[in-house]
Write a structure and sequence with these properties.
5-stranded parallel sheet; two-stranded antiparallel ribbon
């Protein structure tokens, strides 16, 4: 996004992805935990894991946890229990992204903050209490499995923009995936690709926050 798009007074709301923008995640930890439960090399699991339509359906809330784990059992060729899959699945969360808590607190004094994440119910159940203080900066959190829509689909951004209630061009969106940033831009939002918290800090500074 051209830096000129961000300037003091350019935004009426800020919208944040959660994974790798607010909460750090590490899929290696998931694979390692599953491998330990299955007694097989983690490399074998990593090579077989695919974000297929069952995965996407789980994120939209249309595929149950049991069906998702059953699909993983076949996809990965490991025959561990649902409880063991869940244990590994929730091992993905590392902690708050370095420095993000202070930035969110500062930004919330100036503008309303919202979050929009592609996620699933087991992850929601896990991170909501663990990161309650961090998530408390957001007026509303839009979760794909709750709204039935996921990034980068245009319908997902349109839903969130309507719910926030300000024009898309007045929302600055932060995400760590290029495809989600591009989808947001196609829907009229100002979008920032986040590679580290420094990118969030730079955007906020450009906005005069």
């Amino acid at each position: 996004m051209p830096s000129s798009a961000l300037h003091p007074g350019a935004a009426d709301a800020l919208l944040f992805d959660l994974g790798r923008v607010v909460i750090d995640i590490d899929f290696v930890q998931v694979v390692s935990r599953w491998a330990a439960h299955a007694g097989c090399p983690s490399e074998q699991i990593a090579a077989r894991f695919v974000r297929d339509e069952i995965y996407h359906g789980h994120e939209r809330g249309t595929v149950s946890d049991a069906a998702f784990f059953a699909n993983l059992r076949q996809q990965l060729g490991i025959y561990i229990t649902d409880a063991q899959f869940l244990d590994g699945w929730n091992a993905i969360f590392v902690g708050a992204m370095p420095g993000i808590a202070a930035l969110l607190a500062r930004a919330a004094e100036k503008l309303p903050l919202y979050a929009f994440s592609n996620t699933n119910q087991p992850h929601i159940d896990h991170f909501s209490p663990v990161y309650a203080d961090l998530l408390g900066h957001f007026r509303e959190i839009f979760l794909s499995s709750s709204i039935g829509l996921r990034k980068p689909d245009a319908e997902a951004y349109d839903h969130v923009v309507r719910a926030i209630g300000v024009p898309a061009k007045r929302i600055v969106f932060f995400d760590d995936l290029a495809e989600n940033v591009e989808g947001a831009q196609a829907s009229g939002l100002n979008a920032v690709l986040v590679r580290s918290t420094a990118d969030v800090a730079a955007a906020l500074e450009a906005l005069g926050i």
